[in-house]
Input
Amino acid sequence: MSFDFSTQLGDKRFSNPIFTASGCAGSGKELAQFFALEELGGIVTKSIMMKPRSGRATPRMAETPSGMLNSIGLQGPGIDRFLADDIPWLKSQNATIVISIAGESVEDYGLLAKKLDGIPGISAIEINISCPNVENRGQVFSCHVDTAYAAVNAVKTNLNLRIPLIAKLSPDVTNIADIAESVHSAGASGVALINTLLGMVIDTNTMKPKLAGKTGGLSGPAIRPVAVRAIYQVHQRLPQLSILGMGGVASGRDALELILAGASGISVGTATFGNPLAAIKVKNELQDLLIEKGFASVAAAVGFAHRDS
Amino acid sequence: MSFDFSTQLGDKRFSNPIFTASGCAGSGKELAQFFALEELGGIVTKSIMMKPRSGRATPRMAETPSGMLNSIGLQGPGIDRFLADDIPWLKSQNATIVISIAGESVEDYGLLAKKLDGIPGISAIEINISCPNVENRGQVFSCHVDTAYAAVNAVKTNLNLRIPLIAKLSPDVTNIADIAESVHSAGASGVALINTLLGMVIDTNTMKPKLAGKTGGLSGPAIRPVAVRAIYQVHQRLPQLSILGMGGVASGRDALELILAGASGISVGTATFGNPLAAIKVKNELQDLLIEKGFASVAAAVGFAHRDS
Amino acid sequence: MINKHARKIAAEIVSNKRVGTYHHMVFEVGDLAAFVRPGNFVAVSVGGEASSMILRRAFAVHRASAKTHIGGILELVVAPHGGGSKWLTSLPNGFKVDMVGPLGTSFGIPTENVRALLVGGGYGSAPLFGLAEVLKNRGSRVDMVLGASSAAKIYAPIEGKRSVNSMTITTDDGSAGLHGRVSEFLPEIIEKNNIEVIYSCGPMGMLAAISEIAALMQIPHQCAVEESMACGIGVCMTCVIPMKDADGVIKMQRSCIEGPVVSSERVIWNSNGKIPAGTWGEL
Amino acid sequence: MINKHARKIAAEIVSNKRVGTYHHMVFEVGDLAAFVRPGNFVAVSVGGEASSMILRRAFAVHRASAKTHIGGILELVVAPHGGGSKWLTSLPNGFKVDMVGPLGTSFGIPTENVRALLVGGGYGSAPLFGLAEVLKNRGSRVDMVLGASSAAKIYAPIEGKRSVNSMTITTDDGSAGLHGRVSEFLPEIIEKNNIEVIYSCGPMGMLAAISEIAALMQIPHQCAVEESMACGIGVCMTCVIPMKDADGVIKMQRSCIEGPVVSSERVIWNSNGKIPAGTWGEL
Ligand SMILES: Cc1cc2nc3c(=O)[nH]c(=O)nc-3n(C[C@H](O)[C@H](O)[C@H](O)COP(=O)(O)OP(=O)(O)OC[C@H]3O[C@@H](n4cnc5c(N)ncnc54)[C@H](O)[C@@H]3O)c2cc1C
Ligand SMILES: Cc1cc2nc3c(=O)[nH]c(=O)nc-3n(C[C@H](O)[C@H](O)[C@H](O)COP(=O)(O)OP(=O)(O)OC[C@H]3O[C@@H](n4cnc5c(N)ncnc54)[C@H](O)[C@@H]3O)c2cc1C
Ligand SMILES: Cc1cc2nc3c(=O)[nH]c(=O)nc-3n(C[C@H](O)[C@H](O)[C@H](O)COP(=O)(O)O)c2cc1C
Ligand SMILES: Cc1cc2nc3c(=O)[nH]c(=O)nc-3n(C[C@H](O)[C@H](O)[C@H](O)COP(=O)(O)O)c2cc1C
Ligand code: FES
Ligand code: FES
Output
């Protein structure tokens, strides 16, 4: 039996369903010693903003049971430098590129879209709307249906490129399916689920928050049940919406779990910190598992856990 | 130096700050073989409803990395039988009793309050509002400021007993401090933070959700960073509100972390499944730690991580 | 008192041997051994200090001996299956595991001699050998039937075989003994040996099948049920199965303290995934 | 290329000995040893299969030898501190740990003979002995100063002591060597020995103090910095410290790939917990 390991997000096809997670693969260069980037379905770049950004002060991380907190604060060189330095290099490696963008205002999202419009060789845009909106008391865009809509709509209306827009959502909301519905109506053909959960660790020696930024984002296997639930809920409500799933995936089994819940693609994030080859391991194990279970394609497995329900 | 290990929730004093967590200590009887119940600050009973309830079908649990999912579905004998059977026994053990109640409607909460009104020897009521509201599409009460208010207000207005009301909140909301503010204004002198996070595990063998109830509540060390964050946020907004903290506490260090964030009492839940003596271990370790750090009382440590901020 | 005699101890591994697909493990448990009855189980912490597996694993006691030359010992039969059991079976002698026990109900031992049939599936045979010893000591006749998917999954130690009056092996693939499922051969064995009571332990499907036969043939049947357990001591309510109480009311009852050994006619079989109609407080 | 030569290997423990409060551990690492330079570190997985500790722990390479009778070996000096390091130091010989390395920058070795001062704090002395060997082999004079809070926390193996021209020990509590902090004695030692270059490794506070002295006395100073690392390979951005780039612009730069060994005048010291004013893209 032939097996089709390719997958689709929006109307774009990718060679296989394993991607890096934004912010967890550097610029790609750091991983190239360990494997060829073109082996993955895609490289999702770290979220890039309009201007250079120092990010937060250190300490920026704390390990937690089966997880970690990070508070990077979207450090980066700004979109211009990023497009000049990182993108050409990724292209030289034949990597499939998904660009993640993040704004501090609705206007930012529109401007970022315009910057990307001329650039060939981008396969999709991940719109990170899980970041603070300076115009709205620092509340993150994805926390409310209206701000989520506005950010995605700003990208949609400022972009002529016909590539999938994938809105990345925060799980820290009362009803994630409502947010997904809203970004879908704003023009996203996919959602990335989930970004980190807001958490905090207090250092019992200093008796202060361990991170300089006080709160941080919780990621890793600890949050996988939350990711599976979010993906399941969104796929149930909007089966036509593509889902790029992530949250604690470290093995083929984990990736399969998210696919059965409704994800068409999988990003590997924190697992790469524990194992530079994690994404390749996940890819190989997932392929074996899908074949072993008798699926003819990735698509056949997407949302399979919803049957008879 | 003398050390005061007692603590206060609302205007009630407890001998020490360690409690069981609702639903994690059975009726108390099951633990009595392992330690004397009166050694704890209090026994929080499993949430009791108006009528007998079978709870959900099995499987009801799935282990997850550093955590677990449960979907008990509030199994219980109903308030009348509970008051007749469980309470007298707990009193016979000199246990300090905190009764947890849960309703399916605002009316239920009022009726439960009336049932409790005549009963002597109850030290506090934990109002579990993290349960589905049948009158509102099964959305849980604590998900919205208005339904949270209504449930707590129903208890307040139907109760003559002058004991602390502690509203137990779900972390699955966009802004937990808003919910805390709302239940405080409805008459709660404390909040219990946090109930479980909504999660799901898919069994990759059967390729279906592992729990019969599909989703379940995530508890254990995995969620501790979320608990610490929620407690920190609520204490920051409402320093006068007592917090009974819980979520992955398994050691004195963990308890101290939640206390530094703003909790005045600590419930030990899932840790008891791994170690029947967990609550006593936490209690002893916490006392040693507080003394070692030079605190003269529990109160002195509550919210200590907020200093200079 | 619930969980009477249960304690949390550090149990030192004194032997760990592979037997077929299982590991036979012996632990030094001191005084605790004296309180263990056939059918009881113990709950073991797995994964070590910084384990991501936070729940104990339940294991039926294979045998407990209060007075050996090294004191009280307890034996388990463990199938290396997932993370917890693989960790446990990989441990060296001398390692101390964190164990809580004895837990749960035990098999009821008749005061008179009986002709008993013991039926085990997979590692479900483990507790039956300890039970067989007790029954034999009381002068009962003990026949045993063990089934599994294939030969390697039959756990039947030689001294165990010797201690019973007859031993029948069945395998689904015919790789050892009779070819087929345990339940297919039971009616004949029951008739032939004039069985008066059945004891069983194994997968829920097997127990259900045996229960049907026992009911039809009107033979008392005690079985050790198994449902996912988070705590093993009755505080979490995850391990429930629908069972009739003394008044015949169906309730979701805890298999860890009302069981694992229960009278099979109390159990509402094949209800996994649903609440049987008529259950008290039915949702 | 970033992380050039880095690989993920199974490194077998061939020796694990307690030395004072530390463990000196030797691993068989095959070819990898040939690529290790003084100052590099390795990242080790901790806690075993089902560990709740998901991040690697970084350890400075104490020494690496490409050609021993058992092949390439690598030595670490590990302080049993929290869960990860305690697990590692408790392992038996023969155990294979999951190791990624070599990682990070290494100490720059001058092409000419120099009079070098090596300063270590706590386990920070570990990488200095490998460095000392290389410098000595090039004909340089090597003086060493090691400081710690107390005697047990000085890591200074005998053969290491022999390989340097002078060794000064300082302890905060006076339990060994000079009573006081390393930095108090440096100016005198630098003067006396006509030091031309300083290499250091230890707590950030100590490195900052040495940097101040080096700047005042206008002596080049390379130090190995340490900041909490999640990945060790440059992909997570947790390990940043504010450092001037080639154009003098202060940027939050990754200590795992731009470091751990950096020229001390690049570092903006004492900035933990804040973004120094003027940092590029300052938040
Ligand atoms: C009363 C009782 C007696 C048991 N006796 C034995 C015995 O004698 N020998 C033996 O090898 N095993 C026995 N088991 C099963 C054992 O407790 C573990 O479930 C099994 O070893 C798998 O655990 P794991 O960590 O290897 O697998 P995993 O699949 O990683 O376990 C994950 C989780 O699922 C639970 N789980 C998985 N399978 C089962 C199951 N079939 N029943 C209940 N819970 C399950 C585990 O307890 C754990 O919480 C018994 C279970 C119960 C409830
Ligand atoms: C470049 C570098 C070189 C190092 N070299 C050595 C060495 O040679 N010998 C040695 O014993 N240790 C060394 N360490 C520290 C080591 O990586 C561990 O942090 C330390 O062993 C504590 O880990 P733990 O799991 O025991 O403690 P825990 O406190 O449980 O660790 C929890 C988390 O905090 C991080 N962490 C805690 N303390 C530090 C710290 N001081 N610096 C960075 N991260 C920290 C850990 O990496 C881990 O993620 C080095 C660290 C770095 C960054
Ligand atoms: C160190 C770190 C940095 C991250 N940076 C970003 C980012 O820039 N943009 C973004 O959308 N998500 C970011 N994330 C979130 C991840 O992409 C991912 O959604 C999340 O970590 C859950 O997946 P995981 O458990 O596999 O890591 C970051 C996560 C980590 C741990
Ligand atoms: C099996 C189980 C049953 C629970 N039942 C209840 C309940 O009846 N009422 C309630 O308010 N919380 C219930 N909880 C939530 C706990 O009280 C606690 O808030 C949560 O588990 C987090 O704490 P932990 O990580 O220490 O378990 C239950 C949790 C578990 C694991
Ligand atoms: S396993 Fe917890 S009640 Fe039975
Ligand atoms: S530790 Fe991840 S970038 Fe340095």
